[in-house]
């Protein structure tokens, strides 16, 4: 026990030379502050250095106009419908429903809406044609005269009669300011109402129902100059 431990030497590369040949057998020893600072400075410089193939933007943050232009540039390479749908979910348009001069209730804009923008998604239950026929008869027996069913494709129908949103209050017009479009989001088909032109505040939102031609006609009350007279 009286033997003194040999002094540990340093190698040319700055690392300590282990006398016993194994670092574990020599236990814990302190590192000089100079060596520690040298190591920290090297590691910090490596972490702060950006990769050669990346571009780092310096300067003030982007303005609202620059953000819109940057976002519009993405639409050329990405799916614009999906991008607009995500925008619609992030910030919904300000809309309200109230009495309409066309028919009963209607949907009105509470803010200006530019052309070719997503206004609202038509939300409801996805049902099959057989269920839709059964519900239509039941709704008639219950005294629900208005139809809030929207066909997505040959097999799927969205029923917004009892579990829908404001989109079900949109009235038909032969000269509409919006149109309906079916988009696919995460392998699921959705119906979204797009603005066909600029929509002013307090202007009623309308689209063409495009009902199939039938013998029993449904009168159209849109009052536009090119009104067809019937919805079907």
TrEMBL record:
What GO terms fall under cellular component here?
Set1C/COMPASS complex
Molecular function terms from GO: histone H3K4 methyltransferase activity; RNA binding
Query: What Pfam families does the annotation carry?
Result: N-SET, SET
Q: Where in the cell is it found?
A: Nucleus
The domain of life is: Eukaryota
Q: Which InterPro entries match?
A: COMPASS_Set1_N-SET, Post-SET_dom, Set1-like, SET_dom, SET_dom_sf, SET_SETD1A/B
Major subcellular location class: nucleus
Specify the Post-SET domain's residue ranges: 216-232
The keyword Nucleus is assigned to this record = yes
| GO annotation terms (biological process) | methylation
Q: Which Gene3D superfamilies match?
A: SET domain (2.170.270.10)
Q: What is this protein called?
A: SET1B methyltransferase
Give the species this sequence originates from. Rostratula benghalensis (greater painted-snipe)
Gene coding for it: Setd1b_0
């Amino acid at each position: 026990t009286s033997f003194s431990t040999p002094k540990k030497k340093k190698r040319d590369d700055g690392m300590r030379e282990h006398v016993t040949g194994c670092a574990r057998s020599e236990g814990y020893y302190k590192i000089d502050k100079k060596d520690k600072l040298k190591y920290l400075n090297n590691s910090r410089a490596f972490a702060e250095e950006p990769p050669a193939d990346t571009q780092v933007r310096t300067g003030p943050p982007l303005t609202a106009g620059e953000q819109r232009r940057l976002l519009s540039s993405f639409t050329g390479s990405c799916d614009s419908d999906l991008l607009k749908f995500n925008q619609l979910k992030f910030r919904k348009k300000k809309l309200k429903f109230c009495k309409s001069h066309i028919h009963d209730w209607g949907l009105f804009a509470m803010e200006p809406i530019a052309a070719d923008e997503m206004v609202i998604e038509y939300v409801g239950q996805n049902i099959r044609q057989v269920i839709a026929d059964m519900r239509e008869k039941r709704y008639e027996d219950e005294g629900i005269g208005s139809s809030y069913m929207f066909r997505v494709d040959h097999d799927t129908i969205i029923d917004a009669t009892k579990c829908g949103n404001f989109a079900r209050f949109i009235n038909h017009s032969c000269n509409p300011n919006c149109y309906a479009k079916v988009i696919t989001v995460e392998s699921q088909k959705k119906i979204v109402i797009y603005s066909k032109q600029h929509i002013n505040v307090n202007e009623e939102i309308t689209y063409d129902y495009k009902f199939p031609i039938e013998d029993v006609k449904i009168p159209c009350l849109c009052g536009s100059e090119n009104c067809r007279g019937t919805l079907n």
